[in-house]
Amino acid sequence: MPSRRRTLLKVIILGDSGVGKTSLMNQYVNKKFSNQYKATIGADFLTKEVQFEDRLFTLQIWDTAGQERFQSLGVAFYRGADCCVLVYDVNVMKSFDNLNNWREEFLIQASPSDPENFPFVVIGNKVDVDGGNSRVVSEKKARAWCASKGNIPYFETSAKEGTNVEEAFQVIAKNALKSGEEEEIYLPDTIDVGSSGQQRPTGCEC
């Protein structure tokens, strides 16, 4: 069937503070990594052009602060997301244990029309640390969690070395594309809680 010319795909990255959300985004978009840790305040986004089957799309990747005090970014931030990326640090068990909280938070705030089938992707980051000797979350454990949530795609990455980052975002983009094809899009240049609430229908009779 002919699909509408959708050009903008919105991806949201969630996870605890310090797991490498910003580093993953920068590695994918700019091919850069910084050892200087700077906490993201509120939310920020980067864009990257991606091509599928002779169509050009802009991937708009939103990065959030992991600190709890910024979790109340609200509906305007989550609204219109086409894919949600859950990131944890393979060396920090708590960041893995919190994946469920982040997933629930997203489903509550974004309230997608089909929550059962909304596309998530899970990334276990920092596999390079200490040559892998300090990891505490096994790949088997992470894959079992993803399977229990409806077979969420899973990747292990090193934002520092660029390992698997490109591959992960290719799947993220493809899943975002599949999820968003029948929905109208409204995305403000900035987060505007006042106006964004009314302008994008949650379920479009397309």
Automatic annotation (TrEMBL):
Keywords of this entry: GTP-binding, Lipoprotein, Membrane, Methylation, Nucleotide-binding, Prenylation, Protein transport, Transport
Q: What is this protein called?
A: Ras-related protein Rab7
PROSITE patterns annotated for this entry? Answer: RAB, RAS, RHO
> InterPro entries, from UniProt?
P-loop_NTPase (IPR027417), Small_GTP-bd (IPR005225), Small_GTPase (IPR001806)
- Cross-referenced Gene3D superfamilies: P-loop containing nucleotide triphosphate hydrolases (3.40.50.300)
Q: Which domain of life is it from?
A: Eukaryota
Q: Which family, according to UniProt? A: Belongs to the small GTPase superfamily. Rab family.
**Which GO CC annotations does the UniProt entry carry?**
endomembrane system; vacuolar membrane
GO BP: any one term: protein transport
> What GO MF annotations does this protein's record show?
GTP binding; GTPase activity
SMART domains reported in the protein's UniProt record: RAB, RAN, RAS, RHO
Q: How does it sit in the membrane?
A: Lipid-anchor
Q: Where in the cell is it found?
A: Endomembrane system
